[in-house]
Design goal:
Blueprint: H1 2-28, H2 37-82, E1 109-112, E2 119-122, E3 138-142, E4 151-155, E5 158-162, H3 170-179, E6 184-189, H4 195-198, H5 201-207, E7 209-214, H6 223-235, E8 239-240, E9 247-250, E10 253-259, E11 273-278, E12 281-285, H7 291-299, E13 308-310, H8 322-328, E14 332-335, H9 348-356, E15 360-363, H10 364-367, E16 370-374, E17 379-381, E18 406-409, E19 414-417, E20 431-434, H11 438-443, E21 447-448
Parallel strand pairs: 5-6, 6-7, 7-8, 12-13, 13-14, 14-15, 19-21
Antiparallel strand pairs: 1-2, 3-4, 3-16, 4-5, 9-10, 10-11, 11-12, 16-17, 18-19, 18-20
């Protein structure tokens, strides 16, 4: 409207000037001369009409064109700011006189304004920084040691080992630890004296620095267990017995002892059970604890809930009761067992209970070593999905013609001659028929029956 006012002002000024000129001519002209009004009046009207035409037609057209150009410039600037592609990748930085470097899609772009010289960095959506987690990552490695247990936990530059598999797995276990950069173990936990849990633990104690050794307060005649005690003595490692409710720190994580709580008839129930927490996540490690120990934990006032459950006793049906599973209520479960093992692990009963509760279950017999990673908020696994729901198959009792060399007692770790009178007292769950050589059975931690002396 400013141009219109100027035009209107000029036309009015011209009109006033012509009127003054007309009056002066009228006053000083002699009578009878040509009347100036006849000339001045048309001229004044023409000038006024021209000014009005300029104000109402020409000025609006110029203003509309200027407004259109300004809008186009603003839209171009807005597209660049929004990160949309106003020009091709090779022309980026040349629009509106700005200067940028040509960069791959998704990278940050620096835009320099031509007039002010100010530089702004534009980030693609994926480059906006996420909120940092206040916790360091925790790694739990469920190492595949066949029919046995061995779990490595890493957090904040510290490490701990739970069990060490059978004696014949030491080479693979040693290599795995060294590949992960482990030379010192802040904690070593032998859950209980079974050979498939402590078989290689004596070598670990000899070859790795151990700051705290935790073993249950129980005696056993198993050769592998005696070797562990001797190795601890040779290295000068004091043995720490687990005390319920004791807490231990590992980096940003912390674990609390939950069991054993009593004296038991089965070595499995002496298993060291503990719950490890890391931010919002928790992991429950159960050794070979059976229904008796699980029942004691259920009735305790201590927390059992866990994000990830290490299934007890390789998935044996005498462990992981429905009541215990309900109390733990895990989102994930891991079963450590060997392929085609003699015990038929994991059992159909345990797999069914896990499946009915929609627990995503991983298995070392099918998937090898399994790694879980916690960032304090979520737990992720290195496997795309869990294992199958197919139960292990326990070898059937052979016919008389194919009678095995020995009958094993999985509970007492004894082996018997096929005609031994002690066989009838072995429970069905612990009775194993085997053709394994005598020397091999002894290496695996079994001892000969004193009655039949096979």
């Amino acid at each position: 409207m400013s141009t219109f006012l100027i035009a209107l002002f000029l036309s009015s000024a011209l009109g006033v000037m012509l009127s003054l000129a007309f009056i002066l001519i009228r006053l000083f002209s002699p009578k009878g001369s040509v009347k100036p009004g006849l000339i001045a009046l048309p001229v004044m009207l023409l000038l006024c009409a021209g000014s009005l035409f300029f104000a109402y037609r020409v000025v609006p057209e110029e203003r509309a064109q200027a407004l259109s150009e300004a809008t186009a410039e603003e839209e171009a600037a807005g597209e660049l700011t929004d990160g949309t592609e106003a020009v091709g990748e090779e022309e980026r930085g040349q629009a509106d006189g700005s200067e940028t470097e040509t960069v791959p899609e998704g990278d940050a772009v620096q835009v320099t304004a031509p007039e002010s010289g100010n530089t702004t960095t534009l980030l693609s959506p994926e480059q906006f920084p996420e909120e940092d987690s206040p916790w360091e990552d925790l790694q739990v490695h469920y190492i595949d040691v066949g029919q046995g247990d061995a779990t490595l936990i890493l957090c904040g530059g510290e490490s701990m080992l739970i069990d060490a598999g059978s004696w014949d797995k030491i080479d693979g276990l040693r290599t795995y630890l060294k590949n992960k950069g482990v030379s010192t173990l802040k904690y070593v936990i032998g859950t209980h004296p079974d050979p498939e849990h402590m078989g290689s633990l004596d070598v670990i104690l000899k070859e790795f620095e151990c700051k705290t050794l935790i073993l249950p307060e129980v005696s056993s005649d198993a050769a592998t267990y005696k070797e562990v005690l001797q190795a601890a003595k040779d290295r000068g490692y004091p043995i720490t017995n687990p005390v319920v409710a004791d807490k231990y720190k590992l980096g940003d994580a912390e674990f609390t002892i939950l069991a054993p709580r009593n004296s038991y008839s089965s070595l499995d129930d002496y298993s060291v059970v503990f719950r490890l927490t890391h931010g919002d996540n928790s992991f429950l490690f159960t050794g070979d604890a059976q229904a008796v120990s699980e029942g004691e934990m259920i009735w305790s006032e201590m927390k059992l809930g866990a994000t990830v459950l290490k299934v007890a006793n390789h998935g044996d049906r005498n462990s992981t009761t429905e009541e215990f599973l309900k109390k733990v209520n895990p989102a994930f479960a891991v079963i450590s067992c060997g392929k085609d093992n003699l015990y038929g692990h994991p059992s159909r009963e345990v797999l069914k209970a896990l499946q009915e509760r929609n627990v995503q279950t991983f298995r070392t017999d099918e998937q090898g070593t399994i790694v879980a990673i916690s960032d304090g908020r979520e737990v992720t696994f290195d496997k795309y999905s869990g294992g199958s729901w197919n139960a292990g198959v326990k070898p059937e009792k052979p016919t008389v013609a194919a009678r095995p060399s020995y009958v094993l007692n999985g509970g007492t770790k004894e082996f018997h001659a096929s005609g031994c009178t002690e066989i009838d007292s072995i429970g069905a769950d612990n009775k194993i028929f085997s053709e394994t050589a005598r020397e091999e059975l002894i290496k695996q931690g079994f001892k000969a029956c004193e009655v039949c002396a096979p």
